[in-house]
Design goal:
This protein is α/β, with parallel strands linked by helices and about 350 residues long. The protein is about 35% helix and about 20% strand. The protein binds pyridoxal-5'-phosphate (PLP). Pyridoxal-5'-phosphate binds near residues 12, 77, 79, 154 and 176.
Length: about 350
């Protein structure tokens, strides 16, 4: 039976490599030959333990995660980490600095404000979040416990292409929508967290990478599951076994593609195709400024906004899904995560050219 797979531009949950989906399909009936399916097998089995350990090892190898850092596969999404980070890293009297580059940063700030002294060093709210700041636009407090930033802004379509400048203050990053899209300097981070459902797997798993040294300084009176220490070196409770298996397969796929440098080149090539098409004509209006443009979520408008519903309807009919901009900003958005093939982006560019010819 042949199943049609359309061009998938959803922001998340999002496209996964076909090889990965097929590998999962094979394990659903009998996981590693156990005679029970992946979703039906114990998380304490040696077969699952091998998956968990291999996923951690591959993640460390591909992303350059030093031994100082623990890799955790938790639940509650990135949203719970908005709270979990200050809960663990902000003891009484400590301060945290935040950069506000959009909806998700704001949610993180809101949770930190519940816990301690939270300063917003820079906000893009007045400029429609169309860029991230340059280092001369914010000053990190030298005694801050950490500087929090959102590497990629899924809704606005902007991205940090280099880590913020923070002196000796460690970084905390929400990498939900661009983790593993390119190499990053992991060692500079006290915590990195990312919901898996964009670049790494299904929803229901959040990857949290924590500097174990930082935990020695943190509070102890934290509810058990929320305390990062609970998860160091152990599978504390029943994890999302299916999700962790998918992550393992996605990591194997990234390795087979040549690792993160190769992934970065692949993502840059796709994004260039789309941005070049938009820049070629005043018919299209890209949202983000050139230096801040995201490789993962490309956001734009049609100069004549009234044409956007027609564009979305016709693109959907032509087999392109998920191009409607987030409800908070409108317009159009194409999410071009690691697993989005060049062919999908080329199909979209071809469709845009034809749409402009007919409606321009
Ligand atoms: C950058 C970013 N952070 C956080 C979240 C929230 O993630 P979750 O739904 O896993 O809580 C999202 C979801 O889209 C996101 O894009």
């Amino acid at each position: 039976m042949t199943i049609e797979r359309k061009h998938n531009f959803f922001a998340g949950p999002a496209v996964l490599p076909l090889e990965v989906v097929q590998a999962v399909q094979a394990e659903l009936l009998s996981f590693k030959g156990m005679g029970t399916g992946l979703m039906e097998s114990s998380h304490r089995s040696k077969q699952f333990d091998a998956t968990w350990t291999h996923a951690q090892a591959l993640m460390a190898e591909l992303f350059g995660i030093p031994d100082t850092h623990e890799i955790m596969f938790l639940q509650g999404g990135a949203s719970l980490q908005f709270l979990n980070v200050p809960l663990n890293l902000l003891p009484q009297g400590a301060k945290a600095d935040y950069i506000d580059t959009g909806t998700w940063s704001k949610k993180a700030i809101k949770e930190a404000q519940r816990i301690g002294d939270t300063s917003v060093l820079w906000s893009g709210a007045d400029i429609g979040y169309n860029r991230v700041p340059t280092p001369d636009e914010y000053q990190v407090r030298p005694d801050a416990a950490y500087l929090h930033y959102t590497t990629n802004n899924t809704i606005a379509g902007t991205q940090f292409h280099a880590e913020p400048v923070s002196g000796d203050v460690p970084l905390v990053a929400d990498m939900s929508s661009d983790m593993l899209c390119c190499p990053r300097d992991v060692a500079r981070h006290a915590v990195i967290y990312a919901g898996a459902q964009k670049n790494m797997g299904p929803s229901g798993v959040v990857i949290v990478i924590v500097d174990k040294g930082i935990l020695e300084r943190t509070k102890v009176d934290i509810p058990t599951y929320l305390n990062y220490r609970t998860h160091v070196g152990t599978i504390f409770n029943t994890p999302n076994t299916l999700g962790v298996f998918v992550i393992e397969k996605v990591l194997e796929w990234i390795e087979s593609m040549g690792g993160l440098e190769a992934m970065h080149a692949h993502n840059k090539a796709k994004a260039a195709l789309l941005y070049d098409a938009m820049d070629a004509s005043p018919f299209w209006k890209p949202h983000a400024t050139v230096e801040s443009r995201s490789l993962m979520n490309i956001t734009w408008r049609i100069a004549d906004n009234d044409l956007e519903p027609k564009f979305i309807a016709e693109a959907t009919a032509a087999g392109m899904l998920g191009l409607k901009g987030h409800r908070s900003v409108g317009g159009l958005r194409a999410s071009t995560y690691n697993a989005c093939p060049v062919a999908s982006v080329q199909a979209l560019v071809d469709f845009m050219k034809e749409f402009e010819r007919v409606n321009g």
